[in-house]
């Protein structure tokens, strides 16, 4: 059995913009996000500004982004956002690192980091039903499918 990669999460910085923008403009990455299309530069900049704006953590909609790195190399982004029903997590893996267990290692790190940041274990995730790999990853890490709403499967950490 292969050893899972060691992933560190650190807060997203302005210097991480180019890495994120590359993923946001890549149709392979965005196919299960939003409308499934790559993001234009304006959308990317709006999202990055929001990510860097440190809203109070107890405010609904407040978010924290994290750069996932293997050693010093960026491999993905983890996003967390406060919602009514809990802290929603999402993750993007750079296609250069697909198939290596990076997403699983990122979720494992997120399950430690995000509850510490927000002070709650109430984590949720929304997944496109066609994204079987993500659904499997979440259930393997203790999430349970709760409902289907507006075209997405809704998971909660059990």
From TrEMBL:
Identify the EC number(s).
Answer: 2.3.-.-
Q: Output one GO MF annotation.
A: acyltransferase activity
Acyltransferase: present as a keyword of the record? yes
- Enumerate the spans annotated as N-acetyltransferase domain: 7-158
Keywords of the record, alphabetical order, are: Acyltransferase, Transferase
- Keyword Transferase appears in the UniProt entry: yes
Pfam families attached to this UniProt entry: Acetyltransf_3
Q: InterPro entries, alphabetically?
A: Acyl_CoA_acyltransferase, GNAT_dom, N-acetyltransferase
Q: Which superkingdom does the taxonomy of this entry point to? A: Bacteria
For this entry, the protein name equals GNAT family N-acetyltransferase
Query: Lineage, please?
Result: Bacteria, Bacillati, Actinomycetota, Actinomycetes, Micrococcales
């Amino acid at each position: 059995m292969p050893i899972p990669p060691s992933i560190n999460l650190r807060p997203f910085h302005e210097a991480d913009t180019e890495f994120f923008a590359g993923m946001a403009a890549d149709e392979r990455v965005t196919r299960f996000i939003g409308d499934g299309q790559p993001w234009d530069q304006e959308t990317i900049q709006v999202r990055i500004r929001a990510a860097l704006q440190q809203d109070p953590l107890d405010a609904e909609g407040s978010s924290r982004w994290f750069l996932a790195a293997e050693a010093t190399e960026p491999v993905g982004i983890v996003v967390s956002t406060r919602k009514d029903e809990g802290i929603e997590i999402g993750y993007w893996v750079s296609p250069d690192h697909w198939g290596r267990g990076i997403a699983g290692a990122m979720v494992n790190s997120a399950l430690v980091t995000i509850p510490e940041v927000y002070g709650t274990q109430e984590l949720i995730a929304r997944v496109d039903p066609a994204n079987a790999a993500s659904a499997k990853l979440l259930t393997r890490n203790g999430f349970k499918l709760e409902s289907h709403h507006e075209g997405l499967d809704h998971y909660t950490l059990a």
